[in-house]
Design brief:
The complex is a heterodimer of chains A (142) and B (335). By secondary structure, chain A is an alpha+beta fold. Chain A contains six helices and five strands. Chain A has two domains: 69 residues, no CATH class; 57 residues, no CATH class. Chain B is 32% helix and 23% strand. In chain B, β8 and β9 form a beta hairpin. The chains are: A alpha+beta (142), B alpha+beta (335).
Chain lengths: 142, 335
C-alpha cells in the first residue's frame, strides 16, 4: 500500500475532493487536512486545478516536489506564499511589485490577503498606485 | 403631420415583437413597415430623431425585461437620472444578555450603514445605413435586437465579475470549492440557507446544474449507488432536476461572449446559493440602474453614415454587513 501524505486546506472555506479511493468525496474543513496517496495526488492534478492554484497544498518538501512536477515556481507565486513572504514582496520596490502582481493566475482570496496586509503597512504612493491598478475594488486608504 | 413616437406607441411594441421573433399580425406589420419607410425615406433631423427614439424605447424595454432575473440574485434598485441609490447594510445590532438580577444591561442599538453606488455606462453605438432603413421593420428590429443583446451581455459580464471576485474571498459556508461537485462540501452550504433563510434557490449554468442529479443517490440496502426513478426521468427530460435538497434549481441563461472566443458570459463552473426567505435588501450583490436607456444620434458628414448611441447607466458592487446572505460554490474540476 502506498504511503499516505497530508493534504492541507489552509483556507477559511471548505474544499471537497473526489478521487477513485474517495468515491463519494471528502470534505476538507477550513484549516484542516485529509490523508491521500500519491495516486490520489496524480488524479487530482489531472482532474482539477486545486493543486495548481495552491488551494490544496502538501506539507514541506513534498509540496516543493509537487510544485516542480506541476511546473509551478513557488518562490514567486503569490498563491503559495505565507503572510511573511507577501510582506517581503510588498516591501520591495514598485517595479518589482508590479512584476510580481502581473500574473493573471493570482486567486481572488490571495489578492484579498495581499490587500489586507498592504493596508497594515505604510506603503509609498507609487506602490499604492500599483496595488490600485491590480485591485481597483479595494480602498487602500480606508 | 410629423410622426411622433412615444414609449407606448404601437410601433414600439411591434418593433419589440419583431426583435424577439414573436408573431405579429400581418396588417400590423405592414403598417409598421410603412411607418419606418416613411420616416427613413425623408431623413430630415426630425425623422431620424424619431427612428432613434423607436430604437431607444425598444432597447430599453428589452433590457429591462431581460435583466429582471437579477432580482432573484441581487438587491436591485432603479432610480432616476442624477439620483443616487442608497443601500442599507445591516451591522451587528441589538443584543440580549443573561446576567444577574439588577445588573446593568449594556446598551446596544440597531445598527446599519448606508452604501451609495457609483454608476458606469454600458453603451452601444450602432452605425446604420439610412437607405437600408427604408426596407422597414426588419432592419430596425436587427439593430434593436443586436444592441440590446450586447448591452445585456456587457452588464451581466460586469456583474458576474464583481460577484465572483468578492465571493472567492468569503469563508465557509459562504464559499466552497471542490474537484467537481462534492456533496460533503455543497450540502452544508445549501442546508445553511434552508435553515437560516427558510428555503434556498440554486442558480447556475446548465452544465453545473446537471451534475446535481448525481448527488441525489443513496446506498441503502445496497453496495452500489441507487437513484430514484423520478430523478432519472427528470434528468433525462430536462437535463436538470427541479429541486435539490428542497432548494429550487434555476438555470442561468448563459449567452456566448462576442469576443471571437467560444467563452460564455457566466462562469460555467459556479453555483450561487441564495436564501429565498430573507429580504432582498439583505443580499450582498447590489445593482443599480440609473434612468432608462437613452439615445443620441448623429450623421457622419464624411461617409454619410448615421449613428445611434445608446447608453444605460448602471452600477454593481458587493456590500455585506454581518454576513453575505448568499453562497458561491466553485467547481475546480478540469473540463
Amino acid at each position: 500500500m502506498s504511503e499516505k501524505m497530508r493534504l492541507n486546506n489552509p483556507h477559511d472555506y471548505a474544499v471537497g475532493i473526489v478521487t477513485p479511493e474517495k468515491e463519494y468525496g471528502v470534505n476538507i474543513l477550513p484549516n484542516s487536512f485529509t490523508m491521500v496517496t500519491q495516486d490520489e495526488i496524480d488524479y487530482l492534478m489531472a482532474t482539477s486545478t486545486l493543486l495548481q492554484n495552491g488551494v490544496l497544498q502538501l506539507a514541506g518538501e513534498k509540496q516543493k516536489e509537487l510544485a516542480a512536477t506541476m511546473g509551478v515556481e513557488m518562490e514567486n507565486n503569490a498563491n503559495f506564499m505565507s503572510d511573511e513572504d507577501i510582506k517581503k514582496k510588498l516591501s520591495g520596490n514598485a517595479n518589482q511589485l508590479k512584476k510580481w502582481l502581473s500574473s493573471d493566475d493570482i486567486q481572488p482570496y490571495v489578492l484579498d490577503k495581499i490587500a489586507t496586509i498592504a493596508k497594515g503597512m505604510n506603503l509609498s504612493a507609487n506602490k499604492l498606485q500599483v496595488l490600485r491598478e491590480k485591485m481597483p475594488e479595494y480602498d487602500f486608504l480606508g | 403631420m410629423a410622426i411622433q413616437i412615444y414609449k407606448d406607441s404601437e410601433i414600439v411594441n411591434v418593433a419589440i415583437a419583431e426583435a424577439r421573433k414573436e408573431r405579429i399580425d400581418s396588417n400590423v406589420r405592414e403598417n409598421a413597415n410603412q411607418l419606418i419607410k416613411d420616416l427613413a425615406s425623408d431623413p430630415n433631423p426630425h425623422n431620424k430623431y424619431q427612428i432613434a427614439q423607436l430604437v431607444k424605447f425598444a432597447v430599453d424595454d428589452i433590457v429591462k425585461r431581460d435583466t429582471n432575473w437579477l432580482e432573484n440574485l441581487a438587491d436591485v434598485k432603479r432610480v432616476g437620472f442624477g439620483d443616487k441609490a442608497d443601500f442599507d447594510v445591516k451591522l451587528p445590532g441589538i443584543k440580549a444578555f443573561i446576567q444577574a438580577k439588577g445588573a446593568t444591561t449594556p446598551r446596544t442599538k440597531n445598527a446599519r450603514k448606508t452604501v451609495s453606488l457609483e454608476t458606469l455606462s454600458v453603451s452601444a453605438r450602432p452605425v446604420i445605413n439610412i437607405v437600408e432603413m427604408q426596407n422597414g421593420l426588419a432592419n430596425a428590429a436587427d439593430v434593436i435586437n443586436d444592441a440590446s443583446y450586447q448591452m445585456e451581455c456587457a452588464m451581466n459580464g460586469y456583474i458576474e465579475n464583481v460577484l465572483t471576485t468578492a465571493a472567492a474571498t468569503w469563508s465557509s459556508p459562504y464559499y466552497g470549492t471542490g474537484s467537481g461537485l462534492v456533496k460533503g462540501t455543497l450540502d452544508p452550504m445549501v442546508m445553511h440557507w434552508i435553515r437560516v433563510g427558510g428555503g434556498a434557490a440554486i442558480f447556475g449554468d446548465i452544465g453545473e446544474n446537471t451534475k446535481l442529479a448525481a448527488l441525489t443517490g443513496f446506498t441503502a440496502n445496497s453496495t452500489t449507488q441507487q437513484y430514484a426513478g423520478d430523478i432519472i426521468r427528470e434528468q433525462n427530460a430536462n437535463a436538470v432536476i427541479g429541486t435539490y435538497l428542497s432548494a429550487k434549481v434555476v438555470n442561468l441563461m448563459n449567452p456566448l461572449k462576442e469576443d471571437g472566443t467560444d467563452g460564455f458570459i457566466f462562469d460555467q463552473k459556479k453555483l450561487y446559493i441564495v436564501p429565498t426567505g430573507v429580504d432582498a435588501g439583505m443580499r450582498p450583490l447590489k445593482v443599480v440602474f440609473e434612468g432608462d436607456v437613452f439615445s443620441t444620434e448623429a450623421t457622419n458628414i464624411d461617409d454619410l453614415s448615421w449613428e445611434i448611441r445608446l447608453d444605460q447607466y448602471f452600477g454593481a458592487a458587493i456590500a455585506k454587513g454581518v454576513r453575505p446572505y448568499m453562497s458561491m460554490y466553485a467547481d475546480s474540476s478540469v473540463g
